[in-house]
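Archive entry. Fields below.
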Amino acid sequence: MPQVVIRTEGLSKTYRTGFWKTKPVLALDNLNLEVFENEIFGCLGPNGAGKSTTLKLLMSLIYPTAGRAEILGESVFNLEARRHIGYLPESPYFYEYLTAEEFLSYYGSLFGFSKSELKSRVDHYLKLTDVFHARKLQLRKFSKGMLQRVGIAQAIIGDPKVVFLDEPMSGLDPIGRREVRNLILQLKREGRTIFFSTHILNDVETLCDRIAILNRGTVIGSGTLNELFDQEVSRVEVVISGITVDRLRDLLGPETSVSQTGCTSRLELQAQSLLAGIVAEIEQASGKIVSINPMRQTMEDYFLKLVGKPERRATPRPKD
Amino acid sequence: MNTVLLMLLLLAGTGVYWSQKAIDERAGQFRSTEEVLYLPSGKVIKTLALGHSGLLADVYWMRAVQYYGGKRLKNERRFDLLDPLIGIATTLDPQLIHAYRFGAIFLSERSPVGAQQPEKALALLKQGIERNPDEWQLYRDLGFVYYWYLQDYKKGAEAFLEGSKNPKAAAWMKTFAAELMAKGGSRESARFLWEQFYDTADNEQMKRNARENLIRLQALDEMDILRDFISKIEARLGRPVESIEELVKLGLLKHHPLDPKGFTYIYNPQTRCVQLSPDSTVRRY
Amino acid sequence: MKVLHIARNTFRECVRDKVLYNLVIFAVLIIVSSLILGAITIGDVKQIIINLGLSTISLFGTLIAIFIGIQLVHKEIDKKTVYSLLSKPVARHEFILGKYLGLSMTLAVNVCVMILGVYAAVLYLRHSFQVSDVQILLAGVLILIELMLVIAIALLFSTFSTPALSALFAFCLYVIGHFNTDIREYGLSSDSWITEVVASAMYYLLPNFGNFNIISRTAHGQFISSHIYFLAAVYGLIYSLGLLLIAMWVFQKRDFK
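PREDICTED_STRUCTURE:
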């Protein structure tokens, strides 16, 4: 039975806004989460869903209006428990007048390491995040990608068991994103637990073991990707050349879902079972089958359906 | 955590209160005014005040009033800071008329009521007149200092006359000048002037001082009446009177006359003068 | 100790702040110019140097204390560096203490430098020192304690208010604090007991900066009683401590949105 590393029970946060602080705004409502050891857990949701609020509650930067949260079996307010966690805030800004080395030394010193231990840790994590070459450079001169990597370095300098990342990929170019993604996978290989929040679906798909989807302060879905939406092949896409769309409609019926793309026609079938019959008809009409592609429901479809926006047309997925 | 903070805060609060009190006890209540001894002249302060000289003038004026009032309460007999304080206040705000008046009175009054430095009062008033030539009341005050405190009737008359030239001046200024010239003033005029001061005083100390002086004048009048009465009785009896009690015993007086502060008058048969009781709090000068 | 690490970093932050340098250089210039002033004035030049020098240290020190102090906490919250810092095993009150100590250390160094400047000017003038000159150093220490109180005020406001408002409040308190004795004297001689009670309450509650003012006396070469000196120092330190406690409480309670 895997250990529960992060647990929340009924965690809620209501902000009081307005001039007289009387207007309540519900940021998070009754969050019940469990994150297991050594998994990558994604917290997904549109902007304003409550992801940052969740993270800040977990980091005891804000106080809950109800409920509680525990990390590694200790209350989040426990100071000593923070030895084993690391946190990278969203769009971080670090002390621009410090060099990378000074910065990491400063944060590292808050753990109470000895001087030599601190030095070796600082060097190690600078190298790991590939900013060692810029260690004597003031942080004000760092690019966004470098800053993000320094941010991860400060998050893991204490050798934490649990790492919290708030939108770690935001604002990065594809190279930066890949670097961060590799770092996250590396952290998992080292046995750590990672909890990160994002609104980028692709990151979740490629990295996460389990996810929770938040919208307007409540959890609207959680579990593994497989549990969440049916990845069964349901629909099939057939690309045909040599027959016009109108001709296909004549052949298969006016309700057929078909469109023209360049010099090919694209046909969408609701069930794989229909495939055999159609193929025969097309060949009889002197059409040529260019490709047959199974379509899985994508994460995007599921997500958009959940948060209530109109579903877009399913896009084909490459065959595995 | 909260309770610890609160306890520490209470402790800190007590500490602050206690140490402040201790400083006050040792350094004296008027250390802010004693600083004046070390301050540069009013002109320097005015430059440093950066346009807030009016406000600072009020502060120094207030300090002067507190200094005077405070010292009096503790029966201290030195007023050396009174002149510098008022000097600075009036340099910062030359139109602080009531400062000139206040200074004039309390610089002139004899110890222990005032600084007993009428010359300083004169200097202050002359400065005030120079800066505010239209204020006829400053001439009145100047004349009064000459007359009452320095007994210089000539200069006093000149001041009253000068002041009377101002069309806004009160009518009696001219008549008083003439009276001073002629017979060196009278108790009536003195009473009139002190009543003036009492009516136009704008703070408690000035009012109190004027009242004390009026009471003295009243006592002087009463003593004169008593003396006359005693002389008449002596003429009737054909022998000297020993004391006022005698007159009461004889039924010539209904009860022992009291001075305005409620103390008995004493008759001294050797000097043949009616005097104030040694316990009396009526002013003697 | 974590507090010392935070203090050291705050010190580093202040030292690398250009504003600080400008103010310090300006102050040193004024001290030097006091020598020139002395040459063209009649009267005791040494008195002028000490007066001007110590007043400059007090004034510029206050400016530094306020302008850096109001940023101390606010900047970290605004730029969100406080997020990553508080996720480390460090308590919120340790953060406040560390910031306070860091700026205090910075000002201590500044005051030292400027006192040395005053001593240098005196030396240049008189070519020797007198026993009473040690009073300059003592005055400097008391000025530093006064500055530490100003820092505490600025820091407290920094925990919950914007820099603009903090500067305003801190400056107002500073000015009121200098007229505190007058407020009390006014209350004492007033006839209304309400005025007296209110004035007394204000006297004890609000900071009394008059306690630290021995500049004039020092310039005249007069010694101040060691009792009073000690009491003034205690007053300043305890008051600062009280303000820090409140700042810690405010900081502890707040949400960092």
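CURATOR_NOTE: Chain C touches chain A at residues 2, 5-6, 9, 12-13, 16-17, 79-81, 83-91, 255-257 (CB under 8 Å).
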